[in-house]
Amino acid sequence: MISDSQLLRTENFWQGNWYGATQRFAVTNPATGERLAEVADATPAQAQQAVSAAAEAFVSWSSLSAAERSALLLRWHQLLLAHQDELALLLTLEQGKPLAEAKGEIVYGASYVQWFAEEAKRVYGDTIPATSADKRILVLKQPVGVVTAITPWNFPNAMIVRKAAAALAAGCTFVVKPAQQTPLSALALAELALQAGIPAGVFNVLASSDAQGIGAVFTQDPRVAKFSFTGSTAVGKTLLAQCAQGVKRVSMELGGNAPFIVFEDADLDAAVQGLMASKFRNAGQTCVCTNRVYVQASVAKAFSQKVQQAVTSLRLGNGCDSKVDLGPLIDDAACRKVEALVQDAVAAGANLICGGQRQSPDSLFYLPTVLSKVDDRMAVAQQEIFGPVLALQSFDTEDEVLARANATDYGLAAYFYSRDIGRIFRVAEGLQFGMVGVNEGIISNAAAPFGGVKQSGYGREGSKYGLDDYLDIKYLCLGGL
Ligand code: ADP
């Protein structure tokens, strides 16, 4: 029962306290339509209060030693792992993904807290040979200040933790607005931050149905130094423009249109396995999910048969049922978008091999779908599908497929399968994407830099580079020595 969970919080959290609001909004389970909770609906005025709390806390948090911040983050990490089952259940209930995936997300999210707790201790400065004998040049790295963030519903835990862990490790304080569909996972994170002893005002969460109003405060309040966003490219552009007014630092993790290329020399079974993981994780609702599949013509038929077999064995259902591989889509709008893309593709000449509709007309369960004879001009190849639809195309030459894969405004993730070492380097270097999976369909982890190029955004999360987004470089010139 969700109401038994000690981590079920329905008020907002800043300055180390829980705050209600005059309005509340409902959180529903996409698998059943059941109302899970009514969450306090934070206002822009409350967002300003949270920013004040973060600004106040920044003074003391940034002056702790890295080791002290690290110790607190490690305590948070331990609590996240200790409560992984409960956190995963909350996540599945509000988001829909299968429990095993939800648990994977909690462990993945927690790994960033551990990673950045360790990295916090390695924020090295620099000394630079001076231009004259009486001078010295030193470089310091300092936390940027108050960080605000807006996150999406597809990874209700990890998208927050991935940003917050880096920000807190660097010495910044943090205020996040989670997606309206999935605030419970975010508020549970606040409860565990509180239990971990992270000081008041350092980690703050505001759930709200007023994304625009909260977004305006987060991007325009002069006390905010940096804004970090994960979401759609369209909303990212609006928020980026808002940040421009105050020349705020930004990290933008936006949409993708990932190609998945299978060359004729690939291990086809491994490619099918990688494709299934990359396409159907979270029912296709991740920004690094495969969107376009290009198979070399000589192996297209064999590959398509293997894919069809794998897809028809997927089990769709309530994520709380342990036998399920695929949960529902997040809401009706998401289902309608996927339906429209599939209908458009079929009308334009694509073959519907399986799926192509909801399990029942009024549910949010969209059947795993395979389309063949897809064309680059179809909307299904140009837009982010964000659903369980695998769209197959074929190609003849390496140069051709590289050009087609790159012919998109997006540049987040790309994947390809080949066993030819020369081709592996040529294609990996030629793909205009921030991340490339070579003979691998799942690529994200705390040690690696996650992020995109082109209109998929900028900034990197995770890895030894991840702290840079939250640090300013300060140059000291010592003269008259
Ligand atoms: P998705 O398609 O994944 O829902 P969005 O970009 O619409 O992607 O949403 C990602 C996050 O951005 C969510 O937290 C949402 O509430 C927030 N958001 C959406 N529109 C705006 C806006 N105009 N201003 C600020 N935040 C917004």
UniProtKB/TrEMBL annotation:
InterPro entries: Ald_DH/histidinol_DH (IPR016161), Ald_DH_C (IPR016163), Ald_DH_CS_CYS (IPR016160), Ald_DH_CS_GLU (IPR029510), Ald_DH_N (IPR016162), Aldehyde_DH_dom (IPR015590), Aldehyde_DH_Superfamily (IPR050740), Succ_semiAld_DH (IPR010102)
Annotated GO MF terms: oxidoreductase activity
Name of the protein described by the UniProt record: NAD-dependent succinate-semialdehyde dehydrogenase
Active site: E253
Keyword Oxidoreductase (UniProt): yes
Family from the record: Belongs to the aldehyde dehydrogenase family.
Tagged with keyword Oxidoreductase: yes
Keywords for the protein's UniProt record, in alphabetical order: Oxidoreductase
EC annotation from Swiss-Prot or TrEMBL: 1.2.1.-
Class of the enzyme per the UniProt entry, highest EC level: oxidoreductase
One Pfam match: Aldedh
Start and end residues of each Aldehyde dehydrogenase domain: 22-475
Top-rank taxon: Bacteria
CDD domains the UniProt entry points to: ALDH_F5_SSADH_GabD
